Amino acid sequence: MSVKAYEEKAGASGKPQAAGAEARPGTPEAGVAAASPKKPEKPETAGASGVPGVAERPLVWMDAHLHVDLYDEDERGPLLERAFAHGVAHVVAVSMDLASCMRNAELARRYPGRVHPAYGWHPEQPLPDAETEERLFAWIRARHNAGEPFAIGEVGLPYYTRTEAEGGGRRFDEAPYIRLLDRFAALAAELDRPIALHAVYEDADKACALLERHGVRRAHFHWFKGSDETIALLAARRFYISVTPDVEYEPDIRELVRRYPLELIMTETDGPWPFEGSMAGRKTRPEMTADVVRHIAAIKGLSAEETAAALLRNGRRFYGLEGADG
Ligand SMILES: [Zn+2]
């Protein structure tokens, strides 16, 4: 899909959805959708998830890939606070460009230990000009020199922009995108920071080659999709993937979860990106990762409680986050 379509679907326009669309009877969030976001609420429990014998122990999880700065400005605080009240221990706030990096740095300062920022340049958009690119890299280095916690991301390759251009018979020059990703991989290696990647299908193979060239070992392929060979390649390198709420209805994602080692999986929403299935018409929120946990548990044949604990441990290990269960 085009950058425009991508941004529109991702909600970059900031257009709020109808409030009534959130509260659907019969969905897991129906009972809490009407509550004030400021009021602390009881987190969900293993008992509430239908796991026998483990009632009242809170389940916690994380959203390992959220575009929190793409929500309306006055919506971000309530969105995060409600998520934290519902058992989301951390969100990784990925960036689109330098302005987005700055907004996420501010949110990370406001919610230390809970909002973990990732700084980069999203690949499904035009490339930065030389001056903008230098300013972005200098700014990231300054965060490193200040000793701040962060990862590199969202960075990667423009699969959807490229394939849409090629499908329409237009030439697409991927080389400058490869060069920028190569520079981010080099930076991640130099600063010893984990990297959050947008690289799907054959682009994941290209990204793997770049990571290898720079000796980057801590890589997270967000919302990963790919061939059997690429899945095997990522697993062999011990790279992490993350799963979105589409695990509810996408057979390929369910099969990926079945095959991928549990200890290398994280949960995410890529919010405000909207989902279908039981989430159609609802605003994407970080606490939707609770449903992702339940689907992964069912596919892996494990309890929701042990799955939540494992997935949270993975995210904390990968991003270097602290927590009582970590
Ligand atoms: Zn993203």
TrEMBL record:
Record organism: Paenibacillus cisolokensis
SUPFAM superfamilies per UniProt: Metallo-dependent hydrolases
Chain intervals for the UniProt region annotation (Disordered): 1-52
Pfam family, one: TatD_DNase
Coiled-coil parts of chain: none
Domain of life: Bacteria
InterPro entries: Metal_Hydrolase (IPR032466), TatD-like (IPR001130)
Record's protein name: DNAase
Basic and acidic residues compositional bias, start-end: 1-10
